[in-house]
Amino acid sequence: MLQICVQKQMGEFSLDAQFDAPAGVTAIFGKSGSGKTTLINAIAGLVQPDAGRIAVDDRVLFDQSARVNVPVAGRRVGYVFQDARLFPHLDVQRNLTYGGNHNAAQVIDMLGLGSLLGRRPAGLSGGERQRVALGRALMCDPQILLMDEPLAALDAPRKAEILPYVERLRDRTRVPIIYVSHDVSEVARLATTLVVLDAGRVAVAGPVGHVLSRPEVVPFLGTRAAGAVIETRVAGRLLDDDLTELQFSGGRLLMPGYLGEIGQKLRLRIPAQDVILARTAPTGISALNVLPVTITDIVPGRGPGVAVGLRAGDDQLLARITRRSLGRMELAVGMQVFAIIKATAVGPEDIGS
Predict the structure, then answer these.
(1) CATH code linked to domain 2-212
(2) How far apart are CA 91 and CA 119, in angstroms?
(3) Which of 85, 97, 277, 312 is the least buried, fewest Cβ under 10 Å from its Cβ?
(4) Which region, left, alpha or beta, applies to residue 217 given φ > 0 means left and ψ of -120 to 50 means alpha?
(5) Distance between CA atoms of 207 and 97, rounded to whole angstroms?
(6) 3-state helix, strand and coil shares in percent for the chain, rounded to the nearest 5
(7) What percent of the chain has pLDDT over 90?
(8) What is the 3-state secondary structure (H, E, C) of 8-71?
(9) What Pfam family is a match for this entry (predicted)?
């Protein structure tokens, strides 16, 4: 468990953030200037807080009141930046072991680096370079892994290449990972815990599925980025139509393409703007997914939009509709309605293991 309490004044900007980061991926999300990089630099020791406390388990890294401030070299922190920052004159093998050689064979296998060891950074793709940077951070035997928007400089194919490796890292290690990102799909796919920063303060924090499904979080995420995360498993295949059937607590969903073997668990992000509501079960429509749901929350936005929280089984969904639709349909908390989700509304980037 990583415990973070940081106060830092930098010119007119004030950071005052407090939260716990358990094992797994804790995503730090927020708009530019919200304090994300200042926060992780304080964890790394690159920025000294004015006050607060940073500890991993029982080991205190910073405590202003006790005058404890462990130097960067003694913090056992692995740091992966936006750019890989590899040594161009060294091959992959020597880049990996530059800071240590801890569990080298395991790290190389986990990140699929075996075929790259003799190559130099100039001959690697962007995704391959980031995998090497991640491997180098792990080989220093970190107690904490910091990742500052590590996929921001990659195009969509390179992101798709590296995301499964980050998922594998999340699932195989017990190292707390602090993952800074402004990409909601990335966060929804990778994070176990989500911390949303707004103007240097923690606006909301908690399990990623719980946070993303809350209507009041929509202003911090942006209306187009808002959406709920549900855990599903592959229940079947419709081979003639090239569809995969997914089961979750609220029913079954059909999604395009082959998504995995029967029984495989998948995490699915359903964008709020792609959820349509109906008072009665619709007929004669092209959408393949119609779920009975109960309205749990209605939160008006600043403009014409309204965020509607929905309960589907034990899971929460989120819809974004207009105030006009809300009034015309006479929707209210506690009402049972139907959520309509097009199979093509969920993209490959919104599906993870």
Answers:
(1) 3.40.50.300
(2) 5
(3) 85
(4) alpha
(5) 34
(6) 30, 40, 35
(7) 74
(8) EEECCEEEEEEEEECCEEEEEECCCCCCHHHHHHHHHCCCCCCEEEEEECCEEEEECCCCEECC
(9) TOBE
Six token digits for residue 281: 């079960």
CA dist 203 and 111 (Å) reads 34
pLDDT of 156 reads 85
Type of residue numbered 74? G
CB 212, CB 294: distance < 8 Å: no
CATH number of this structure's domain 227-352: 2.40.50.100
Could you give the residue range(s) of every CATH 3.40.50.300 domain in the chain? Answer: 2-212
> What pLDDT is recorded for position 226?
85
Residues carrying CATH 2.40.50.100, the chain? 227-352
Dist. CA 235–CA 2, nearest whole Å:
37
Write down the pTM of the prediction: 0.89
